[in-house]
Structure formats: C-alpha cells, structure tokens
Design goal:
Layout (H helix, E strand, L loop, with lengths): L1 E7 L6 H13 L5 E4 L3 E2 L9 H9 L3 H4 L5 E2 L5 H7 L7 H6 L9 E9 L3 E3 L2 E2 H8 L3 E7 L4 H12 L5 E5 L6 H14 L7 H6 L5
Helix pairs in contact: 1-2, 7-8
Length: 208
C-alpha cells in the first residue's frame, strides 16, 4: 500500500476538501483509497461536519474508523493544546501512529495532519516531525491560490526539505489573474510544479 501524508501551508486551507476529492477521484478509477485522521480538534457547536466525517463520506468508511473516537477533541485548538484544555492526556506521535490501521485491500492510504507544516499534531511532534517518522511515499502540500501563497509555499517547502511535496493550489480559478500568476511564478521562479486540480495530483501518486 502506498501512503500519502496531507498537510497545509496553514490552517483552513482546505486539506480535508482536497483529501476527499482525491479519495473520490481515485475511487472512480477502481483504486481502493482510504484516509485516516490520527487526531482532530473541532468546535462542537460548528454545524459543519468534522474532518473525519468528510473523509468517511468520501471513502465509504465509518468516521470513527477514520479517526478513533478517543482522539476527537471537542475544542478548536491545536491537538496538544486542546487535550490540555479538556483535561486529557496529550498523546505522543508514536501513540497516534501506532493507532493507524489500514484495510488489507487498500491501494493507497492518506494521512491527513493538522493545520500547517509547523503546527503541533502531538505533544512531541509538529507535522514536519510526524511526516519524517511516518516516511510516506508521497506528501501533498495544500496551499491557497490567493495572495500570500508564494511566501507560504516557499516556507513550507523549506520546512519539509529534503522531502519534495506535491503542491496543490486549492480553490484555483483559471479566470483569476492573481491565481494564474501565482502558479506561474512558483513553476518558473521556484521550480515548484504546482498542481491546480485533484486530477493532476492523483496522476502523480503512481497508483492504479
């Protein structure tokens, strides 16, 4: 099974939406694609579904299979902060990684992390550290196509080095001049082959 970590340049950039799109895109081609969210924190009063709910709907799994129920932290903070605020023990990354369970027939498994590349995902690890231990075959970096994305993509690539992630500009609008220029700048000036849709990302994952 191929594993792929998904991380963002910052929070609220659309990691879950992108991961769900990748799951659906691969599933339509006959690929058995699943997702896991090692830990999630959220506002229980938010009417929108949690990340685990969204990923479960896209993959056909149960939300509590995507993210173990004891890792649902009902306060919108970075997971170790949320655990502390709730009076719960803050898990280490090794504990979270040990809970990742994959079906035997899976072709590719996505591990969606939290926030941005330097966001703390566990008591002893941010997303960069978690990825280095997880050692996935691929890393998808989700960025926004809007103003500021060049800075954020550059900083994320520096933090992830020597890993070279597959970069996707989310919410890309081909009619938006800024969006087009951001993509062109990253490609021409930084050598970052930024994808602008889920189909181009799935083509680079090497699974069929």
């Amino acid at each position: 099974m191929i594993t792929c970590a998904v991380v963002g340049t910052h929070t609220e950039v659309g990691k879950t939406w992108v991961t769900a799109e990748l799951l659906r895109s691969l599933t339509t081609t006959g690929v058995r694609a699943v997702a896991r969210k090692p830990i999630q924190s959220f506002d229980p009063d938010d009417p929108h579904p949690t990340d685990a709910d969204v990923l479960a709907a896209a993959s056909g799994d149960d939300p509590e299979t995507v993210c173990p129920p004891h890792r649902w932290l009902r306060t919108p903070m970075a997971p170790p902060m949320a655990a502390d605020a709730l009076g719960l023990p803050s898990p280490s990354w090794s504990e979270l990684a040990a809970e990742l369970a994959w079906p035997e027939d899976a072709d590719i498994g996505f591990v969606e992390l939290v926030g941005g590349v330097r966001s703390p995902v566990a008591e002893d690890a941010d997303c960069v550290h978690a990825i280095s231990i997880l050692a996935p075959e691929h890393v998808v970096l989700v960025a926004d196509a809007e103003l500021g994305t060049i800075d954020r993509v550059r900083l994320a690539h520096e933090a992830l080095a020597p890993i070279v992630p597959i970069t996707m500009l989310n919410r890309f609008d081909a009619t938006n001049d800024l969006h087009r220029r951001n993509a062109e700048w990253l490609r021409a000036r930084d050598g970052i082959d930024a994808s602008v849709d889920s189909e181009s990302v799935t083509a680079r994952l090497g699974v069929s």
